[in-house]
Amino acid sequence: MRLGVVRFPGSCDDGDALRAAAIVGDAEVLWHGDRDLRGVDGVIVPGGFSYGDYLRVGAIARFAPIMGEVERFARDGGLVLGICNGFQVLCEAGLLPGALLPNEGLRFVCRQVELDVVETSTAFTCDCPAGERLSIPVKHTTGRYFAPEAQLDELEARGGVLLRYAPGHNPNGAARSIAGVCNEAGNVFGLMPHPEHAVDPLTGSTDGLCLFASMRKVAGAVLAA
Amino acid sequence: MPSSPPEAPVPPAPSGQAPVPPAPSGQAPTPPAPSGEAPTPPAPAIAFRHRALGLTDAEHALIVEKLGREPNEVELAMFSLMWSEHCAYKHSKLLLRTLPTEGERVVMGPGENAGAVDVGDGLVVAFKVESHNHPSAVEPFQGAATGVGGILRDVFAIGARPIAVLDSLRFGEPESARSRYLLEQAVAGIGHYGNSIGVPTVGGEIYFEAPYERNCLVNAMCLGIAPRERLIRSAASGPGNVLVLLGAATGRDGIGGASVLASAQLDEGDQAAKRPSVQIGDPFEEKKLLECCLELLDAELLVALQDLGAAGLTSSAAEMASKGGLGIDVDVARVPLREADMEPFEIMVSESQERMLCVVAPKRLPDVLARCARWDVRASAIGEITDCGRLRVLQADKVVGDVPVVALVDECPLYELAPERPTERLYPVPRQAASMDSALAPDAAPRDTLLALLAAPNIASRRAVFEQYDSIVQSRTIRRPAIADAAVLQLAPDGGSGALAVAIDCNGRRVACDPYRGTIETVLECAANLACVGAEPLGLTNCLNFGNPEKPHIAWQLTESVRGLGDACRALGIAVVGGNVSLYNEADEGPIYPTPVVGLVGLLPDRLRAGGLGFAQAGDAIALVGPFAPRLAGSELAKLRGEPLPDELGHADVEAIARVQRSVGDAMRRGSLSSAHDIAEGGFAVALAECCLAGGIGASVRIPGRVEDPIASLFGEGPGGFIVSGPIEALRARELGAVVIGTVGSTRLELTFERAETSLECNLEIAELAAAHTGTLEAILG
After folding, report:
1. For residue A15, what pLDDT band results from cuts at 50, 70 and 90?
2. What is the pLDDT averaged over residues A190-218?
3. Which residue of A has its CA nearest to B607?
4. Class at the top of the CATH hierarchy for domain B436-781
5. In chain B, what's the furthest Cα-to-Cα distance?
6. ipTM
7. Could you tell me the pLDDT band of residue B266, with boundaries at 50, 70 and 90?
8. b/e burial code for range B552-574 (CB count within 10 A of at least 16 → b)
9. Which residue in A202, A205, A209, A212 has the most chain B C-beta atoms within 10 A of its own C-beta, making it the best mutation to test that interface?
């Protein structure tokens, strides 16, 4: 399996995402100005500040040349993972429902948080231990998940909420403690916590690995078929 | 080369001090005799402008002598900045020359953009600390943000990828609304820049003391890593090579003292339009610039690289020419501008952020421009290297400035200080902390005093601040803030199984008590932090924040402090690889506490054995290590009680402390210790509580023997003490020289004396300690 990590000029966690992806498969950089996904089996849109994000976060990045290809790839059922800024970009691109608003505290927050895996039957969580908590860091200023009530109801009803902050761990005031959501088809997933910073016990935890391992499982099955 | 804007208004000349002739430069060729004719004649009104620009009459006369004529306004602007304290270190250079700068690990020492040391495996670590005090006092968010931006550029200017930022902050007491505002904004600014550019902020320190009320300190340190062969110097070479300006367009930001020239020329009407502005940081621009520069270096396309900081193009171009012993022509008409009507002198001294200057061989230029375009980084050929030893400023085909490089860079007069030990107290007695006086009184129960100290602004948990910084990006951080006495970063994936440790320290109040011993304590404290994680020091950088050195008592502080810095470094075998000076930090109320901030970088051979400060395992023994002789005078408790600063600190046996540091570091590297923490602010009891808090586990400790002054033994301060934990056999090892005093376990901290009254005992739940330790900074930040 080969994962592509998008590199915008302002990406910060692209190197970290590449290292995490390389644990489960092959990994390579996808340059923001290219209109080519180089035949990868899955795409990661990493954290950072894509084009500075001085405007609404992700608002410019969704128009990047590479994003047209990512959208096409997603519509064709390809696996797309958006982490932090990547989540914001995927929401701006309309690939995921809802939006990310400034944190309730209006400040940047970098903190290890606990997450409950809500769904374990998806392409991104099928390798996660059911009922166990994941310890993964967050670091963002604009991470408060928001959607209208009706949309939140619908999202929950269809099993679109994959990760929730454990009680007492919601760092940003996210609606219904939502930390990560997927699209209706289940092939696009965005989350505010950084699983790529939870793949080595020395730097924190290894709890983020199961998300990448899930992608490998699913993409591997597709490749084998 | 300094790269932040001038720190303070440039002072008038010292009256009774004779300038010392500058040391002969071994590099630069003798410049050709000046032509005797100014490129453009000076305006008559300029005759006295040198004073407004901070140059003395004598300095002005010297400039005239060097040029063989009156300088025109471009030249005067350039001289005024290059001959400022900030660029020329004219009051500090003679002192700084006394510091030890040699070491087998040293790859680059003082004089380059950053110091660099060899860490093995073909890797080099570059680091530097620099002040951005004055801009931060004016506009704390942008001041602190551009402080981070500037120090990052210093590090990638030598080809190193920045991997960590630390910051050292000083504000007035938090009762002051202005101090709270400065803290909140400075922290937000540091976070804004560091977080956005993808460099983790891994450590730092914050102190609140009244003498910083009008002069806050914002010092930022950056650490970078590079393959040894990618390191690049700033010396220009190869006449005919092209000078290329990279990055942001040039505007009127931070034109400093030179704005006097601007305002004198302005009509009433366009004053506002042409007013110089505070520098605004653009981390996105710098992120592109950083990646682009490292790519250009990897492709071996550059001859030299230099950042633009204080004095902008003038300083960068002049320094490059000076180091290469060459000349440079700069055409201001080819500099991309944000404001089309900028004068040549404004372009030459503008401090617009996010710019770099490089030297490129003509045949490489197309490749350089293409790579810059790919990163969307503006690149403009603005001049060329010459062999005439002069910095010539052109405006298209007109010469608007022409000065010998040597005069600009190397011939600023240096001044001897006239130190005099003060006979009266320089600082007011600290105001008693009203909110906690009963808990702090000499007859208070130690448990109450301990809780009050844990909640004190200088000791309370820093979580509310460090959570605003991304401390983990780049996946190197193996000891995050508050986990260990120093931050620890793994060298992988660049190479090896080792790790770097980095810490930044200075207790200005103790330096104010005794500049010599206080500075020694600062170095010892910083080295102790490294020892606690098991690191051996590789090199030191410093930022000397002081008041006006032309006043004899400040000169005395500075002289004593630098003497202490040198003695401590020699005793510990640490080389000083770089530094920065910020002087004139004074207000009508008086000077700041002398604050020689020290940053140390160390190496751990095995990243898996990085130490932590928290007790780790129930059943571990606890021991006290080191020649710790605490005194209450000058301590945090004494400050909170409103006691005056003592005239001196206790003598520290530096050699003995250095030996203890080595043995603690060795024990940690061998894997014999579960935790190590050095005793600092708040003394032994606070350090013990911190070990419990960081580990989330209690401890039972009994202080052995007869204790003369139990309160001083609990809360007194002094260098040399460590609290370590681990298996009892390891702690009893002879080489560690530890005294076992207790055991890790339970949810309580129980502290008793073998021979003292039971009323002195402390018995506290960890939850009580945590409640006291948390909340102070949260409340200050609002």
Report:
1. very high
2. 96
3. A202
4. alpha beta
5. 87
6. 0.97
7. very low
8. ebbbbbbbbbbbbbbbbbebbeb
9. A202
